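Worked example

This section walks through a single chain of length 52. The input is the sequence exactly as stored; nothing has been trimmed or padded.
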Amino acid sequence: MKFTEAKLEQAVVELLGEQGYPHLLGGELSRSNSDVLIKEDLRALPINTTSE
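Given that input, the structure is written out below as tokens.
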């Protein structure tokens, strides 16, 4: 059996799915293709403002 990039991708998608991460195709995302970050995710990140 040959291990291909497609099989690797499918394995990663399945592993992430088991961890609760959904798999979405690019066209299913609620953002423009030119946006680098998903703004809602960026806003949800905790920001550490203390300096160590």
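What to look for: Helices lie at 5-18, 39-44.
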